[in-house]
Specification:
alpha+beta, five-stranded antiparallel sheet, four-stranded mixed sheet, 8 helices, 9 strands, 29% strand, globular
């Protein structure tokens, strides 16, 4: 049974896959270098999402201006857990949120068609103080999923949701220690 708030992700013993959507000018160099390089901005917060369907909703299946390239960013589990350990929910005291190195926000998970579901997906905002670690230390690989995203979107639009669902990346509950789960309001 799905919990109200739960991190669902594609992960293994070494890493976790997070999704981001960028303009080609940022995505192309990142994919070519297999890490974030200029013109990726290290001067602002970057939001990482383990839910593929949530990012598809947010980017309109890679159709929104500035979000036409969908990337699978595999980072180390150690980096992911370091980010979560430094996170403050965006619903916390505003002063605590302002000081936080990492922000956590819970948004309704999405169905394949984009409808809001009755459980929530985590979005993690990595602040400027950790961007270098995210880009240079945590990132294991960057893969361009744009062709796959376009294929899934085409199948959904043409009423072939079951075929589209077979192309979705696998996601399963991500294990966290209980105290961190409480701090992130998981459950």
């Amino acid at each position: 049974m799905t919990q109200l708030r739960e991190i669902r992700a594609d992960y293994d013993a070494a890493g976790i896959v997070l999704y981001q959507a960028y303009a080609p000018a940022i995505a192309g160099p990142a994919v070519a270098a297999n890490r974030f390089v200029a013109p990726f901005s290290r001067g602002r917060m970057t939001w990482i999402k383990p839910s593929f369907r949530w990012l598809m909703h947010r980017s309109n299946w890679g159709q929104k201006p500035g979000q036409t390239c969908v990337l699978a960013v595999r980072i180390s589990r150690a980096g992911w857990e370091q980010a979560l350990a430094r996170a403050v929910p965006t619903t916390a005291d505003p002063a605590a949120v302002e000081r936080a190195a990492v922000h956590v926000q819970w948004d309704p998970e999405r169905s394949l068609s984009g409808a809001a579901l009755n459980h929530y997906s985590i979005q993690v905002g990595v602040g400027r103080g950790l961007i270098d670690a995210f880009a240079d230390e945590w990132t294991i690989s960057i893969t361009d999923l744009t062709p796959r995203v376009r294929r899934i979107a085409e199948l959904v639009r043409s009423g072939r949701a079951s075929q589209a669902a077979r192309l979705l990346p696998p996601e399963r509950p991500y294990p966290l220690n209980p105290s961190l789960a409480r701090e992130l309001a998981i459950g």
